Amino acid sequence: MTTTVMMDVEYEQPVPDATQGGACTPRHAWARVPVEPSPSERLALKDRIRRLLKERNAVMVSHYYVHPDLQDLAEETGGLVSDSLEMARFGRDHAAQTLVVSGVRFMGETAKILSPEKRILMPDLDATCSLDLGCPSAEFNAFCDAHPDRTVVVYANTSAEVKARADWLVTSGCALDVVRALKDQGHKILWAPDKHLGAYIQKETQADMVFWNGACIVHDEFKAFELQALKAEHPKAKVLVHPESPADVIALADAVGSTSAILAAARNMDATTFIVATDNGMLHKLRTQNPGKLFIEAPTAGNSATCKSCAHCPWMAMNGLAGLAQVLELGTNEVHIDPALGLRARLPIDRMLAFTAALKSGQPTTGLVPHIGAA
User: Fold this and answer.
1) pTM score, two decimals?
2) Which entry of 13, 104, 239, 284 is 20 to 30 Å from 259 by CA?
């Protein structure tokens, strides 16, 4: 059984910028993309950030989709580049009392949920996510109330309020394992918010699922027809696809998975050319780790378009060196979460962390999947 709830939310898509030689400049009503610093400004900002991190007893974490400068600086200063949950887990376990999260709002919230005693700062608190925006907590609560017999499983790309309503939180890396285990124990699933990821999981597990109708504005734009044409131009290329993409794009993949899985596939597959269907911020890490290989952006538009691929999140693009330096200097843009809400939102996260730790160590996971029902 598959059911989808409709939620109509309008987003302004990234638009081509003809002045940038076909590059796509992400723009949104409040997506204030920082001005690119000059080489001398970049060096000065990086030096200032390194100094402030030491002075403030702070560490920075960056998502794979933010500007390469922020990824490189995180690693150069003892921080981390990773997915949202690993960023939060790293911050929880690190000795630093201030964590600077370069990413989008739900990532800062997740870090605060796991480290309520720490100060969590972000370069821009208005940097959000279409999946988060498209799943308002009041409407989601009503959807859960309409399906009281279902176990609520939500993707990491959600607000603290939505997480607090969930029984389980999952990432794209563990969603299949969690849903398969729940199905084996007889659970029916209420899934939110990404319909493409949910459909992929339902297809792979045959679980009984109802879906919230959300989508990532980046991954939703990949085009299977154009991808087939690009594959024909590069017949030896392997296609790497994030499962937030539409089903017909996933069907063309040689490997489907999370950001970490895509990195592993690029490293381990017997190929030198890859077509990548995820946010193009990911290409920096792929190219850094695989200097002898070619990575091509999967298409989001046809030949008539100004840019062939516009695959970059407008909110991820709001993160910049100047904003990062400013929040470290002034202590602004701090993430706050009501303590009671944070405690409730932490339950599905801790449940997932215990499950994945047991799975990784080869321990039984059966006892970690209680018959809980919807929260």
Assistant:
1) 0.87
2) 13
